[in-house]
């Protein structure tokens, strides 16, 4: 570890995997010292290269295989190491060790990202930002895979591939990149009233942050905290930047993108290098399980916030980023976050978006990181040692001793055993589930406009103007008038003045919608 650099358990573990090439001789991957790195082996001075040249072959082959697929979403990212320090105990609410003992420090790695753009795209796109935090706790990895906007576009995971296909560049010509809106995105959104709350946030200044250091983070879904007695509270997670929330204006964003598309990456890197460590307060909104139905929205609906006036955010800790990665690929690129990585004392809810996410992340990482052993990549390893009977597979690193890799067994031979709850074994909350097997949206998810209105009305006059201009800019890029018309007609349910101003600028009229408050059935004519 460099002098004056913070250190923690995770950084010490990573250190064991690091190599320094300083003052070393060049070798092949087999450790053979290389005598000439300038010329390939040829038959004669001006002759053809020989197939025998294993040094050339190894070098070129490795180079040919340097790339892995970028993330299917959130491809562009920047990350840093840091520490989470607990300032207020939640032991009353959760068994989670890292949330119980005041003063306890837990190593973290955080990756910020844009969602839609590819790896080489600009940091300043109008987009949601990812805010993914891996807590390397004593009880295993806990991932809070959060965004900088507290709600989401859709209510059910089955719509995620549609959303992403609509937002990504169009398939026939790969246009446009993340910087401007297009037919497919607004076509989909105008047919999905449930996205209206998110659209208000996305068209606001929130989606063009000044810096990653000046962004909030939200877990979005309701999760559960479970205490020693098995009592549950719904919880919403929040990160609040110590520097406050700041954005840039759209024309600033455009210019910065042209001059320095790495603006956020550079800002994060330089502030950490200069010792200006970015910090966030970590907070929770807690709702006793018995109050589940007290609200006029469903706590399981990820398009809704829990208003902070009704349930204040309690600040319980500080997240500090204090060390840049040594190697972007090994750390920021190979890290694998997953909302399903939880620890005892934290549990999921039945939010249908969250439930689908629980499948998606490992599934995508199996292909992105090349097989079932990506948990062994140094950045993904938990700080406690992994013991189980899983074995083999591509790129296996761990060498398990003994002849037994099944359980139960009577031979012994080093086989690990399940842990009781009091030994830290994870137990899912015992929750009652009943009902008919149905493929339909809960009626409690149907109000798509109240919180969109709440957000729009909470904006100051200049912020409202920015939001309006964003909609005008975006919709003016849509080539199909029917889509523009449907979208302004959706806006009328949020604010009539906003709708008519945008409509006038994009050359359409506000019309009455056939399906005002529900997603349009796939077999219906949306015109
Ligand atoms: C990344 C799926 C909703 C936050 C990803 C990735 C997938 C995915 C496949 C790429 C992971 C990788 O390659 O390692 C989904 C699905 C969703 C969903 C299926 C809904 C059904 C959300 C929501 C949030 C979110 C609601 C925020 C609360 C993130 C973040 C990343 C990510 C921050 C980037 C993680 C990183 O930095 O590596 N998502 N996502 N996603 N997702 Fe989601």
UniProtKB/TrEMBL annotation:
Its cofactor is heme. Heme binds at residues 71, 111, 160, 357, 361, 368. It comes from the Bacteria. GO terms for biological process: hydrogen peroxide catabolic process; response to oxidative stress. It is an enzyme of class 1 (oxidoreductase). It catalyses: 2 H2O2 = O2 + 2 H2O. The active site is at residues 74, 147. One of its GO terms (cellular component) is cytosol. Keywords: Heme, Hydrogen peroxide, Iron, Metal-binding, Oxidoreductase, Peroxidase. The keyword Transferase does not apply. Residues 27-415 form the Catalase core domain. GO terms for molecular function: catalase activity; heme binding; metal ion binding. Its EC number is 1.11.1.6. There is a cross-link at residues 338-361 (3'-histidyl-3-tyrosine (His-Tyr)). Belongs to the catalase family. HPII subfamily. Decomposes hydrogen peroxide into water and oxygen; serves to protect cells from the toxic effects of hydrogen peroxide. This is Catalase. It comes from Chryseobacterium takakiae. The chain holds residues 1 to 527 of 713 of the full protein.
């Amino acid at each position: 570890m460099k002098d004056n650099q913070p250190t923690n358990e995770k950084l010490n573990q990573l250190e064991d995997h690091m190599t320094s090439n300083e003052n070393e001789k060049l070798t092949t991957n087999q450790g053979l010292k290389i005598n000439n790195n300038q010329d390939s082996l040829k038959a004669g001075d001006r002759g053809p290269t020989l197939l025998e040249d294993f040094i050339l072959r190894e070098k070129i082959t490795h180079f040919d295989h340097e790339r892995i697929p970028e993330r299917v979403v959130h491809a562009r990212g920047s990350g840093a190491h840091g520490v989470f320090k607990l300032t207020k105990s939640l032991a009353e609410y959760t068994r989670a060790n890292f949330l119980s003992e005041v003063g306890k420090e837990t190593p973290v790695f955080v990756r910020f990202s844009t969602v839609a753009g590819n790896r080489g795209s600009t940091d300043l796109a109008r987009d949601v930002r990812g805010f993914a935090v891996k807590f390397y706790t004593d009880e295993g990895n806990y991932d809070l895979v959060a965004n900088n906007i507290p709600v989401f576009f859709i209510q059910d995971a089955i719509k995620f591939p549609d959303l992403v296909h609509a937002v990504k560049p169009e398939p026939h010509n790969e246009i446009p990149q993340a910087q401007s809106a297009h037919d497919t995105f607004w076509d989909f959104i105008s047919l999905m009233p449930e996205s209206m709350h998110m659209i208000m946030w996305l068209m606001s200044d929130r989606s063009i942050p000044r810096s990653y250091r000046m962004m909030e983070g939200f877990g979005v879904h309701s999760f559960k905290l479970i205490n020693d007695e098995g009592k549950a509270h719904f919880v919403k997670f929040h990160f609040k930047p110590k520097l406050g929330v700041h954005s840039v204006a759209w024309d600033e964003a455009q210019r910065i993108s042209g001059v320095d598309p790495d603006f956020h990456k550079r800002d994060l890197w330089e502030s950490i290098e200069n010792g200006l460590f970015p910090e966030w307060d970590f907070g929770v909104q807690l709702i006793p399980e018995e109050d589940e139905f007290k609200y006029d929205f469903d706590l399981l609906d990820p398009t809704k916030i829990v208003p902070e006036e009704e349930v204040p955010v309690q600040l319980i800790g500080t997240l500090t980023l204090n060390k840049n990665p040594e190697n972007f690929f090994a750390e920021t690129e190979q890290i694998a976050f997953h909302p399903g990585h939880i620890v005892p004392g934290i549990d999921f809810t039945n939010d249908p978006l969250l439930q689908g996410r629980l499948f998606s992340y490992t599934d995508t990482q199996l292909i992105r990181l090349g097989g079932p052993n990506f948990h062994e990549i140094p950045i993904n390893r938990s700080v406690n040692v992994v013991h189980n009977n899983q074995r083999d597979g591509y790129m296996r690193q761990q060498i398990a001793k003994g002849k037994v890799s099944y359980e139960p067994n009577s031979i012994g031979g080093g086989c690990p055993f399940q842990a009781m709850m009091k030994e830290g074994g994870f137990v899912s909350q015992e929750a009652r589930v009943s009902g008919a097997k149905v493929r339909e949206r809960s009626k409690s998810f149907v109000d798509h406009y109240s919180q969109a209105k709440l957000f729009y009305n909470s904006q100051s006059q200049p912020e409202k103007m920015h939001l309006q201009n964003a909609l005008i800019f975006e919709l003016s890029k849509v080539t199909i008038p029917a889509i523009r018309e449907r979208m302004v007609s959706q806006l009328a349910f949020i604010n009539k003045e906003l709708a008519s101003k945008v409509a006038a600028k994009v050359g359409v009229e506000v019309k009455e919608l056939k399906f005002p408050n529900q997603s349009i059935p796939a077999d219906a004519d949306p015109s």
